[in-house]
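Bench log. Compound arrived from synthesis this morning; before running ITC I wanted a structural hypothesis for how iron/sulfur cluster sits in the protein. Inputs:
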Amino acid sequence: MSEAEMQETYSLFPGCIAKNMYPSIEKSTYTVFEKIGVKLLNHRYSCCPAPGVFRGYDRKTHMTLGVRNIVMARQDNVDVMTICNGCYGSLWEANEMFRKSKENQDFVNEKLAKIGLSYDGKTNVLHFVDVLHKHLEDVRNAKEVDLGLKVAVHYGCHYLRPSEKHPDINPESPHVIEDVVEALGCESVDFKNKLSCCGAGGGVWSGAEELGLRVLDEKLKNVRDSGADCIVNICPFCHMHLDQSQGKLEERYKIPVLHLSELTGLAFGIRPKHLAMHTHLISTRDIEKKIKKSKKGSDSEE
Amino acid sequence: MSEAEAKKVEQMEEDPYELEQFHKILEDSKILSCVQCGKCTGGCPAGRQSRIRIRELVHLAHEGHDIKDCKELWLCTTCYNCQERCPKGVDTTEAIISLRNRAIRKGDHNFPEIHTTAITSLRDQADGFPLSPDVESIRSVIGLPKHPHDLAHDPEGLKKFQALMDDLGIVELVMKKQCGEGKPWKYVDIKYKPSVARGTKKEGESNE
Ligand code: SF4
Ligand code: SF4
């Protein structure tokens, strides 16, 4: 096998929100993974489909459409890497439902056969934070600036729960995102109900907006009390709710929200302008200024 | 919904398949093991901010009540806190999802109609959140292809995807049963909505 073929390669599953609403997340993902030596391929994916709505309608439809996505990567014999908890949850569950039941396998393959596809259950669905975590040493080496930020880590529900997804992570005290942000020179601050929901999932973001805002308000209060400079998340759907819905609350929190890929990109020296950070509704200016300061500090030390 | 209001499935359900499905939900999610300790409600972020009481929903289902029309079914964020914390291993969140599936099959008119925009958008352009012209240009500026390499921009693939969705019958199930026969599909651009919901009433109470 040639060297190129042996390079660690995944199919990037960008998900609707990253590619269609926050391209900064998609862009920084490409840059970050290139810098740590991981190759990403593109495939013709649909929406995962969004679990909050579609799994609530009909599990079998959700599973079948999820598996159709996985088949795209299977054809190139690579695993799927998601950058969103929703996509991760959807595809992971579709894969598990398929793998665990002969009845489901027959159902899905009968449907897929009509459009010329089939699946054997052999592809794995990964979350990008796990891949980053595996490459912590490469992350440290690729880092150009110690960010020096205090960050409030937001896991989001569907990375941690149901906990069958990660048998080796304690869902009540995980230390995955924390390890990555610490490698980037950030301090991860503790806050009340850190592992709780942002309020957007389960179709609540669109279907019961006020409830979603109330849950968000509680979350942001706790983050503000922690004194963090920003929230760091691993899910564009949480990201969107945390960023966009802040403006709908009575309380003006103005807490910047960054996806972990963006934070990592900034630490790897990508200029904020090249990430279109202005697509965020809550300005990330203060964060960028702080990073500049840290950079100057570390440059003058050398 | 109180216990008195909720009818028993056994009395309501004429379709033997649906009756069997209801019992299957109880069995699969181990609802019959519930001891009503309340740990699930204790950790529920939605319960702190709205009327949903997961312990109550489990209790009603346990007693054989038909809760397909409970508005509370749609107030769960599926955060899985309750399921992770249940000492008796009841799969509470999975039960909520299965009960939602059942409500949809039975033509529940309480489901949030705005969700139909997601389903029509998925059918039309293979994405729940479609690409807008603004983002197209931002993508180009930061060096990404204007159009993502996705199914929405692959006409052949999209046609097959639509055939698959039609074969699954999902659009029909939701649009016809939930919204009524002949209701036109409407495409709604999901964008940032202006400031709303600064009131103080709790979700779900407005319809009382
Ligand atoms: S935590 Fe489990 S056993 Fe306790 S009330 Fe809830 S479902 Fe029942
Ligand atoms: S999964 Fe739903 S019912 Fe359970 S704790 Fe979360 S919001 Fe509450």
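What the model suggests: The radius of gyration of chain A is 19 Å. Strands of chain A lie at 9-13, 39-41, 79-82, 125-127, 150-154, 187-188, 230-233, 257-259.
ITC booked for Thursday regardless.
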